[in-house]
Design brief:
Angio-associated migratory cell protein; mainly beta; globular; Methylamine Dehydrogenase, Chain H
């Protein structure tokens, strides 16, 4: 049977009843994808599809208070706030003139901020659906809300990190080296921020004083641009990831490197002939587990590495067929979620290193995703111009 025949047969199946008793994961082997040229489109496990974007959808965030609203931004210079339950549009965050690459809700879901590549940042009041503030900086690299206050932090290509009070607009800048501030994160105490730069350096900033508490550079820093930073739940440990394929564990109080996790490539690098690209790899995403001393690092070559922090050793390697774009830990268990360039979301048990489940539905790479607080839904955005909502309730809960 052709893919179309299969799809038509699928339409007659009533999935509602079947979901009641979860089928054994082993039964779903990969045979069903054989002979289906475009396997990515054949299967759609999502509950809701949001399709108002007309180009790649770059970013998504859920509102922290109720987890009922999503904001998505895309290459179509548009951002939308919509309901997760049915994909219903609440309002459009209009007025951007470049790809919207950053979007997120304030800690209490009162405001939503959207930022585009050119550096135009807008903040909207969610209940009134109206813009309350906007500001233009240099080319935007990242943007994040403060965990306890109406304060917005953003890093730009000129090396600056900006901080504003919303909606008054009181502003402070933290001047880094003269190269892009590629990633940043406010630490859980709300008083410090860690920022990574393109030259491989990392700084911990005191947000109140505007001073740099610690600088990691040279041998202590990375040899290539930083791609991501994360902190553990109490902010005592920071992890940085870089294009140099190293992940560094840092004590945030002392600014000292505790250990370096290096991913040794399995195959020796063949000499690259002229005009050929060397196989590239880099750390793309990382994060700490809240309930066990574990950290996860996702690599562009498709490796998910689970490191044991107490022994500072590699615990599991979970292989993906294509690059990992982002990973997130469940808030209260040792389950880590990955999304990758093959368009699938996967759940992994970090204790065993085994895959728990896999969800598909996009016909292109997943570019960003978010998990709600009780880990029952995942919202994804993709190069296929769509955002999707997947229900991931697991039978073991």
């Amino acid at each position: 049977p052709s893919a179309d025949d299969l799809a038509e047969e699928m339409e007659d199946v009533d999935f509602e009843d079947e979901g009641a008793e979860e089928p054994d994961a082993e039964a779903w082997d990969s045979e069903d994808d054989e002979g289906v040229e475009d396997g990515m489109e054949a299967q759609d496990d999502s509950e809701v599809t949001f399709s108002l974007h007309s180009d790649s959808v770059f970013c998504v965030s859920l509102d922290p208070k109720t987890n009922t609203l999503a904001v998505t931004g895309g290459e179509d210079d548009k951002a939308f706030v919509w309901r997760v339950s049915d994909g219903e549009l609440l309002f459009e965050c209009s007025g951007h003139k470049d790809s919207v690459t950053c979007a997120g809700f304030s800690h209490d879901s009162v405001f939503v901020a959207t930022g585009d590549m050119s550096g135009l940042i807008k903040v909207w009041r969610v209940d009134a659906k109206e813009e309350v503030w906007s500001f233009e900086v240099g080319d935007l690299e990242w943007m994040e809300w403060h965990p306890q206050a109406h304060v917005l932090l953003a890093g730009t290509a000129d090396g600056n990190t900006w901080m504003w009070k919303i909606p008054s607009g009181d502003c402070k800048t933290f001047q880094g080296p003269a190269c892009p501030a590629t990633c940043g994160r406010i630490l859980p105490d709300g008083k410090r921020a860690v920022v990574g730069y393109e030259d491989g350096t990392m700084r911990i900033w005191d947000l109140k004083q505007g001073t740099s508490l610690h600088v990691l550079k040279g041998q202590d820093g990375h040899q290539d641009p930083l791609t991501c930073v994360a902190s553990n739940q109490d902010g005592s440990l920071i992890m940085t990831g870089s294009v140099d394929c190293h992940a560094k564990l840092i004590n945030s109080a002392t600014g000292k490197v505790v250990c370096v996790f290096k991913m040794e490539s399995v195959t020796p690098k063949a000499p690259v002939s002229e005009g050929e690209e060397a196989e590239s790899n880099s750390v793309e995403s990382l994060g700490f587990c809240n309930v066990m001393p574990l950290a996860a690092v996702g690599y562009l070559d498709g490796t998910l590495a689970i490191y044991d922090l107490s022994t500072q050793s590699l615990r599991h390697k979970c292989q993906h067929e294509s690059g990992i774009v982002q990973l997130l830990w469940e808030e209260s268990s040792a389950v880590v979620y990955t999304c990758s360039l093959d368009g699938a979301v996967r759940l992994w048990d970090a204790r065993s290193g085994k895959m728990i489940s896999e969800y598909r539905g996009h016909s292109a790479e997943i570019l960003d995703f978010a998990v709600n607080k009780d880990a029952s839904i995942v919202v994804t955005t993709s190069g296929d111009h769509q955002a999707k909502v997947f229900c991931v309730q697991r039978p073991d809960r």
